[in-house]
């Protein structure tokens, strides 16, 4: 059998092997339903979507039962740890212990998966506050920074230890680095248009023929942050296209201009 290699990064998703191929992924509840319906048997091989070894469903079920008991103990451990604290902001000296207990208990709270908030992310929680039975905290998420944003998302979480519910009550953002100053593309576009129309030599313009040129856009607007760079280059192309339109020059593809 082929080992699954983390297609959805979810520790609660599972595949089963039907004798020919891996089928799934399914959550634990669905897998249990499939067993009750006789679609899979105790000896059917299952594997976590995060990878690892295949094991018989009967072994998987036994392991899950033991894990649920362990998580149950973890919730009670978290509750006992919090009940020792005074109401209000959690003192820095107690934060590591509370976060460790929270991470261990996280999967048992209903709603914990909102915004793909897995237990492994909880250790980054900050501004913890305890007002029994509610524990609140802020979690900084960096998803948008992958695309060049200078801001992180802030999720304001609240968990209720009595009802075992977790939910986000507010969203905001945090500036991680200074914002780039706005780039005025109009003067750049006008200078390029003048050089293109009047056949002037410019290092950033490659003239393939008297009626065909392309721009070294990477030199005109150097790469910085992905979203910022893409936005600047798009605005420049639009401004240049408008500046060239009366002269008979048109953009035939990105950064390539031809005279009709």
Question: Would you give an account of this structure?
Answer:
- With 260 residues, the protein is an alpha+beta fold.
- The chain has 3 domains: 13-53, no CATH class; 64-175, Roll (Nuclear Transport Factor 2, Chain: A), CATH 3.10.450; 185-259.
- The chain contains 6 helices and 13 strands.
- It has helices spanning 28-36, 57-83, 95-105, 185-197, 217-220, 226-244, and strands at 13-17, 22-27, 45-48, 55-56, 88-89, 126-131, 134-141, 151-160, 165-175, 205-209, 212-215, 249-253, 256-259.
- Helix 2 (57-83) runs antiparallel to helix 3 (95-105) and helix 4 crosses helix 6 (226-244).
- It is elongated.
Count of DSSP E strands? 13
CATH architecture of the largest domain: Roll
Helix content: 25-40%
Mean pLDDT, all residues? 86
Main sheet properties: 5 strands, antiparallel
What share of the residues does DSSP label as strand, in percent?
25-35%
Shape: elongated
Helix/sheet category? alpha+beta
Short characterization:
With 260 residues, the protein is α+β, with helices and mostly antiparallel strands. The protein contains 6 helices and 13 strands. Mean pLDDT is 86; it is low at 2-11.
